[in-house]
Amino acid sequence: MGILNKCTLIIVSAGLMLSSCITNTKSIKRNIDDNLVISNINGLAKRILKTKADNFVFELIKEKTPEDVFELSARNGKILIKGNNGVSMASGLNWYLKKYCNAQFTIIDEQLSLPDKLPLPKTAEQIKTEYKFRYFFNVCTFSYTMAWWNWDQWERQIDWMAMNGINLPLAITGQEAVWYEVYKELGLTDKQIDKFLVGPAYLPWSWMGNIDSLGGPLPKSWIQSHKLLQQRILERERAFGMTPVLQGFSGHVPESISKIYPKETIIIRPIALMKLIPTQMIRFSLPIWAKQYTIQLLRQTHRLYG
Predict the structure, then answer these.
(1) What is the CATH number of the domain that holds 204?
(2) Which DSSP symbol is given to 133?
(3) Terminal-to-terminal C-alpha distance of the chain
(4) What's the predicted TM-score (pTM) here?
(5) Which of 100, 230, 247, 288 has the fewest CB atoms within 10 Å of its CB?
(6) How many domains in the chain?
């Protein structure tokens, strides 16, 4: 799969990859312990199949493969599922449930009425994908659908993602914790940061540079709880072998930043979302300021989320 299944991408909220994070591929390669991978996929099977999970054995394919791959076969009366990573093995389990049991685990529901004795594959079967990267989520989904999700909902969602081959999920839960730390380090007060951060239902529009303060101030308890939630999300996604896509710097800054740095460093966007108060963007024609913001963002992102 190359470097991208072992690192965390940073993107700006407009959707452009921040290429500086992948210039040294050796330094960002993320090694995942094989035992953790197997423990993780066994956990998925138990959550979904309960006691039926004992009918499955999962093994990692150690040989390097150009494509993601899973294999189904039988061994000692059990279903053996091999894969080159956690996502591949989860996809193999999903394939077995659909093809051999007419069962289904969907994004919102499930039909898992399995026979008492699970059918064994009569011949070995190997499935490969030609698609190296399988991306998932729209930025706005994190407010339309997932603003109030807890870990139980996220855990099921990540299970579904793994079973459907997702290996490049957008992961911007808890981004407000990063920006809080960035702006504290840059010298803003809590009151100034509160005026910038929006309420939970509007966060993606803030990350896209469209609004400030709407629905805020954001409680510190929210920032803390969603930082912890994001850390849990990332730990699970990475254990499956996914590459979470984190946010980068779009240029959107608080109005109060002009009280600390020269006013010529920012420009005011004359048209804001829903004709609200115009937002401020840093002048990328002054690269020293844009670079400083980017460095601060990367430092705090790495500190909080790896």
Answers:
(1) 3.20.20.80
(2) -
(3) 20
(4) 0.89
(5) 288
(6) 2
